[in-house]
Amino acid sequence: MEHSKVEFAGDVNDGIRFADPFFNNLFGDMFGFVWSKSDELKMTSNELGCSLTHLSMAWCISNESVFMVLVGASRPSHL
């Protein structure tokens, strides 16, 4: 099974945008909310035996309100 490049560990890593004070000031408390939701989604994907990427794609494909899905894959193997 392919895994997402991004792993949510609960702590802000220095290598991500939200570690930058600019983004932290811009988004404030919203980051903590989004981070906690990403942890919940990671648990759900683990329970289902899939990656966050696969869970996201499945949600998009099954949601009738989604008209088009744009992915940032540079190679077919990324899909």
From TrEMBL:
Taxonomic path: Eukaryota, Sar, Stramenopiles, Oomycota, Peronosporomycetes
Alphabetically ordered keywords of this record: Ion channel, Ion transport, Transport
GO biological process, one term: monoatomic ion transmembrane transport
Protein's recorded name: Voltage-gated potassium channel subunit beta-2
Species assigned in the record: Phytophthora boehmeriae
Superkingdom: Eukaryota
